[in-house]
Amino acid sequence: MDQIRSVKIIFITNMCTHYTRPLFEILAGRYDAGFYFTGGHEGYWHKQNELKPGNFRGRYLRGLLLPGHVKITPGLLCLPWRGCDAVIKTIDDRFALPLAFCAAKLFRKPFVLWTGLWAHPQTPVHRWTFALTRSIYRRADAIVTYGEHVRRYLMDIGIDGRKIFCAPHATDNAVYDRPATDAQKAELKKQLGIAADERIILYVGRLEDGKGLDHLIEAAASFKRVGVTLLLAGTGSKETGLRAMCTNRGVRAVFAGHVPNEQLYVYYALADIFVLPSVTTADFKEPWGMVINEAMNQGCAVVTTDAVGAAAGGLVEDGKNGLIVREKDSKALAGAFERLFNDERLRRDMGTAGRAKISGWTPRQAAQGFVKALEYVQSDH
User: Fold this and answer.
1) What is the pLDDT of residues 174-193, one digit of tens each?
2) What is the pTM of this model?
3) How far is 117 from 99, CA to CA, in rounded Å?
4) Element housing 112 (H / E)
5) Of the four listed, 75, 82, 262, 313, which is most buried by Cβ atoms within 10 Å?
6) 320 touches 353 (CB < 8 A)
């Protein structure tokens, strides 16, 4: 991308994660961008994961955490609003979002919203605040989305499609496409107490309601193939109940706990099938599912649901690089597992197709979405 270092950007989001860091570094190489992080307390983020800036100018802002995970960040008031050329803000944070939006309007700066929401949450608080959120959608100068599924949702609620730009949600593929040796995989199976000849259905993520893990266990219970282990890597409030459910249903399952990001590639390499069975709840609809990006780097055949952004957004193509089933449908999940284990060639071909597709699904591609949005707000359109 061409250098436009004279364009000054204020970029506000909750965290610098391992998967957003490459995107931020690319944008910092093009623009005079300052990144400001207001979070770090999110319930979905494991405390052992890194939260530190990369090769760009950025800092975490101190604040006061109130009940309901509302963080008041007074430092936002002191940002160089008057001297910037555009403000970019993510959809998160009940305090920072309206403040950044109002500051941009007050100082007559273009406001760009970055969002992965493709359904508005239905908790009482979210229903009450929907009018405000829709007003920000409508009055934002441009919107950057995780994928076309978010664009469709926004247009369905009356947002002008001309100001919506897609930045395909991506991670640093180099972290996950490293070769895993047979010795590494054998050692990992040994550590986990899994027999050498056992086949693996892998889940990676939080052990929480929105992930649909009760439906996954029901599917595994009805899936009668001998020599298959369900491997779950992650932690969460539902772990005790899920363990009991596996025992009661006779499901062979291993709970691996938290796995550092730099070690996950061996888990993906170990898997015969990767599954993300997320479901819609009152406060959650999977915005994307970055673990699918990660798994595709190791050539995993993917099984997921139609409640997952990576499926609705076009990364997973049903029948080509994975299988997409109805959410909350245990029978359909079991059928997908059966199909892939019965057809080794199909499973391998899907893994190969996934690996080929993810190789071009990169942070640099995502950065182009932001470039187009900033070009749009800087033009007369």
Assistant:
1) 999 999 999 999 999 999 99
2) 0.94
3) 20
4) strand 111-115
5) 313
6) yes
